[in-house]
Amino acid sequence: xxxxxxxxxxxxxxxxxxxxxxxxxxxxxxxxxxxxxxxxxxxxxxxxxxxxxxxxxxxxxxxxxxxxxxxxxxxxxxxxxxxxxxxxxxxxxxxxxxxxxxxxxxxxxxxxxxxxxxxxxxxxxxxxxxxxxxxxxxxxxxxxxxxxxxxxxxxxxxxxxxxxxxxxxxxxxxxxxxxxxxxxxxxxxxxxx
Length: 193
Known about the structure:
By secondary structure, the protein is mainly α. Helices cover 85% and strands 0% of the residues. It contains 8 helices and no strands. Helix 1 packs antiparallel against helix 5, helix 1 packs parallel to helix 6 and helix 5 packs antiparallel against helix 6. The mean pLDDT is 90.
């Protein structure tokens, strides 16, 4: 494999890992937060509204990060900032109650979900000749591996509880932020302009 191809594979693996981390937390939140909010006496219809706002705000975040990426081409920085801002929001979701907890959860969705379009676009820029394959790796393979992982995390949630599971997953997000600092020095400069 040529050096340039090795660099592309390395970059793609970093992006896939970021997307994997995103989906691990996202699937966990969508699966277990209804149970958590039910325990706080939130009605099921209100939980539906909360999840709707969580996803809708995340979509709005994706529009914003997509625009920022197109303008500045700093995908790794965008991912790191969004992840870094989501960590305290989800952490304090469990340390507060009532409306504050719900607002923190929804705002966390804004930052967490917002990185998905950036990951897709970066993968497409790395593989401009195979955009469909690049998109499928980000939208299919990474979430698929995360879904398989959830089989084991479901058992962990039964044992340690929802809050502890989310906190461990936030450590994974933090690890991802640190890992993204080890991108190749010329990495983003090599992305298609």
